[in-house]
Amino acid sequence: MEYESNRPLSSRYLVIGLDGVTPEILEPMVENNELPTIKRLMEQGAYGHIRSALPFLSPVAWTSLSTGVTPAKHGITGFNQRMEGSYRTELFSSRLRRVKPVWMVLSETGKKVGVINVPMTYPPDHVNGIMISGLGTPGEGSPFTYPAELKKDLMERMGGFRFGWHNYKGSTKDVYIKELHNTIQNHFHTASYCMSEYGYDFFMAVFMPADEASHLLWSCMDKEHPSYNKMDAERFGHAIQDIYRALDLKAGELIKAFGDDATVVIVSDHGFGPLRKAVSINLLFEKLGYLRFNHPSNGMVAGINRFRTNVNLYVRKKKRNILQKLYHLMGNDDMTDKVKTSYDYQSLVNIDWSATKAYSMDDCGSIFINLKGREPQGIIEEGPDLERLKKEIKDGLLGLKDPENGRGMVHEVFFKEDIYSGDCIRSVPDILVVWERGYGAVSDKARLKRRLHYKKDSFFINHNWSGHHVMDGVFIISGPETRKGVRLEGIKLYDVTPTILYSMGLPLSAGLDGRAIKECFVRTIDEKKSSSTDIFSLSPSGRNELNDEEEAIVMEHLKSLGYLD
User: Fold this and answer.
1) Which of 77, 224, 239, 401 is most buried, most CB within 10 Å of its CB?
2) Is pLDDT larger for residue 558 or for residue 389?
3) What is the pLDDT of residue 168?
4) Looking only at Cα atoms, what is the longest distance across the chain?
């Protein structure tokens, strides 16, 4: 590569995020000339598989990509976090992000930025430009744009912004697929409109339909899937590929609208594969003696407990609302915030914590130890007992076999401290799991609370998903100074932000976990290093800043996507 130190490699960036787009589908389609925009970018630039963050859930992955650091530093470890001193959880929001994302770093250097639909960006940041928040936004009734007047613009000129909450329950596949395509149209039209109204140095937009289609429709094209049937295959076996084609077409239009002088990045936050068997870690742990349910077989008692919990939540909400109104009338809004308590949608109320060593509460099978001094009823001591238990769980998972065919079910198991470090490591799951193809952990929270409708010795559960996340997504970069036809190896989501900053001639702050992917450019420039940790200067409020109504709406959205039952 040629060396030149005084001229940036790129002055403008267009980043198109395609949530859940996977090499397994994309590469054969490119070979068959079905994705002309993506094929052209791959030929004119560099391409590679990009390794996601663990756990590879969209909020974690997109935050890792946009900050250049791991979840142990940026603090977004899933859709929700455990509330201190409790087994209850609250939803994450952008106000709990501990690190500045790339659009804020660029804003502070005077660059004009546009950001649309990136997950976990509500409330939107006050950028030098415009922002429309993404997954985690309560809906059109919320202040989801910056500046605020952009919302009115979208309502009047675009007919609103579709947040992509497609409820597959009670919907036919035809209707569901049509809604996904309508959302693609709406989001790309919104992005094009915003581009035409403003000039940008950096523009990033994320599109979710490939992820949603792959979760629900994978079995339609997978003959080995237990849910495969010939009729669905004939009608919907091409539905996921049709989403890819639509995204490719609209990406081409967006690139043309942005201008030929820009560097274009197309990136997905993780890949996708089949979910032929869904595992409940908590049911598995019950079987192995790591977890105990209070009433594992008594449906009537469990039902009474559930009714009592719902009544208590209702009464607590009513009391809270009354207190908030009183404090607001008295002009004491600080106290109004203090009495706010999150809805508890993953409370795990039916677990006997006095006899539970470990548990899971996300859709990747990530594991928390019931640690004394951290969990309110922790029973495992720091030290040899903890290390012994972790090794025992790791060895057990790696040795886990499908009882029907004897296949290994788990590919890799990591202890968080072996792969992560940072001020937020306390909230990262203690054990992180990567599953073999065809297997995955999903939660079935509603039924786990009452422990009903399961075979006593089974840890497999029925789930509406037939596809689930896998580790490797796709990364393409093409621009005036990128090398042509290069295959990139060993790249990670954390590398995207350092690459953008490096190529624009901006300093890389101390503490970034990613590297600049210099091998994708035709020449190198001086890598400016900043000894400061200014990206860590955010002071989160400690609250997710969603009120009760907003949190309830987001919970329903997550249910509609299948992340909550």
Assistant:
1) 77
2) 389
3) 61
4) 74
Closest CA to 456 of 332, 287, 317: 287
pLDDT score of 4: 67
Q: Give yes or no for residue 320 having a pLDDT over 70.
A: no
Q: In whole angstroms, what is the distance from residue 127 CA to residue 138 CA?
A: 20
**Count of beta carbons in the 10 Å neighbourhood of residue 538:** 17
What does the block give as tokens for 300? 């009537």
What the block records as the tokens of 268 is: 């997905």
Q: Which residue has the tokens 């997954």?
A: 135
* Residue 319 in tokens: 């009391």
Report the mean per-residue pLDDT for the chain.
85
Residues 6+ apart with CB under 8 A from 338: none
How far is it, in rounded angstroms, from Cα 236 to Cα 285? 37
**What is d(CA 387, CA 393) in angstroms, rounded to the nearest whole number?**
10
Looking at mean pLDDT, say which of 2-6, 119-123, 269-273, 351-355 comes out highest: 269-273
- By DSSP bridging, strand 202-207 and strand 145-146 are unpaired
Instruction: Tell which residue, 29, 9, 47, 560, has the closest CA to residue 268.
Output: 47
Say if residues 309 and 349 touch (Cβ distance below 8 Å). Answer: yes
Percent of the chain surpassing pLDDT 70: 79
Beta bridge partners of 14: 203, 264
Task: Indicate whether 258 pLDDT > 90.
Answer: yes
* C-alpha closest to that of 81 among 431, 542, 554: 542
State how beta strands 460-461 and 202-207 pair: unpaired
| Residue given tokens 């250049």 in the structure block | 68
Confidence of residue 534 (pLDDT cuts 50, 70, 90): low
* CA angle, 501 then 196 then 479, to 5°: 35
Q: What is the share, in percent, of the chain residues with pLDDT greater than 90?
A: 65
Residue 124 φ then ψ, to 5°: -70, 150
Give the chain's count of helices (H) and strands (E).
18, 23
Average confidence (pLDDT) over 84-105: 85
Q: Could you tell me the pLDDT band of residue 550, with boundaries at 50, 70 and 90?
A: low
Helix (H, G, I), strand (E, B) or coil at 152: helix
Average pLDDT over residues 323-330: 50
**Cα separation values, 247 from 35, 193, 232, 437, Å:** 9, 17, 23, 26
pLDDT tens-place string over residues 433-454:
999 999 999 876 544 444 433 4
CA 469/CA 273 separation, integer angstroms: 6
What are the angstrom distances between the C-alpha of 278 and each of 267, 296, 327, 462, 467? 27, 20, 47, 7, 10
CA 269, chain centre distance (Å)? 8
Q: Where are the alpha helices (DSSP H) in 168-271?
A: 173-197, 209-217, 230-236, 239-258
